[in-house]
């Protein structure tokens, strides 16, 4: 049975949404095409009608995750940078890998991925730095950018490490240390 263009687009969006979550939860190599398509309620046979390859899906799903994350970060940092930092380093964010930061969830996978995925990831890093830079306390643009990079690196690193250790107390200590020793004065 042939599906309409509108239905095909809905299917593609469902695949991207599910892949964005599942890749963050399991990594790019931690889930196969059959499972990805099944999670979207579709069969593997339709995959290549939407994407050229799993790498193409990975790049597009990462772009989806980072775009969603960027909008959420914009809303949160507009209200309170300190509030956003606390939310980023929270227990809930640590535990919600599939709905959380794609930078922390997929950094290791991206380092071994192809150029398309790496380009999307680099764009996400640049967007985050660009979002944070105006909120940094330094006197000049170059130093504010450096502070934003240090802040982002500290937060992503702390979240990544806290997810990787099997010890809840150590995970909490890592995030608390990051919060207490941020590389910029956040008020």
Automatic annotation (TrEMBL):
Pfam families: TetR_N (PF00440). GO terms for molecular function: DNA binding. The keyword Ribosomal protein does not apply. Gene3D superfamilies: Homeodomain-like (1.10.10.60), Tetracycline Repressor, domain 2 (1.10.357.10). Keywords: DNA-binding, Transcription, Transcription regulation. InterPro entries: Homeodomain-like_sf, HTH_TetR, Tet_transcr_reg_TetR-rel_C_sf. Residues 32-51 bind DNA. Residues 9-69 form the HTH tetR-type domain. The keyword DNA-binding applies. This is TetR family transcriptional regulator. The lineage of its organism: Bacteria, Pseudomonadati, Pseudomonadota, Betaproteobacteria, Burkholderiales.
């Amino acid at each position: 049975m042939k599906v309409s263009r509108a239905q095909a687009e809905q299917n593609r969006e469902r695949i991207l949404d599910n892949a964005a979550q599942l890749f963050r939860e399991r990594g790019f190599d931690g889930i196969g095409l059959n499972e990805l398509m099944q999670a979207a309620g579709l069969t593997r046979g339709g995959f290549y009608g939407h994407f050229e390859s799993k790498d193409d899906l990975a790049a597009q799903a990462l772009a989806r995750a980072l775009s969603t994350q960027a909008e959420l970060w914009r809303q949160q940092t507009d209200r309170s940078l300190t509030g956003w930092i606390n939310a980023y380093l929270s227990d809930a964010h640590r535990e919600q890998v599939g709905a959380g930061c794609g930078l922390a969830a997929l950094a290791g996978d991206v380092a071994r991925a192809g150029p398309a995925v790496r380009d999307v990831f680099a764009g996400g890093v640049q967007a985050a730095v660009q979002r944070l830079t105006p909120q940094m306390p330094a006197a000049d643009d170059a130093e504010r950018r450096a502070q934003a990079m240090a802040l982002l690196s500290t937060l992503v690193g702390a979240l990544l490490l806290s997810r990787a250790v099997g010890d809840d107390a150590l995970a909490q200590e890592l995030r608390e240390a990051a919060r207490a020793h941020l590389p910029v004065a956040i008020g």
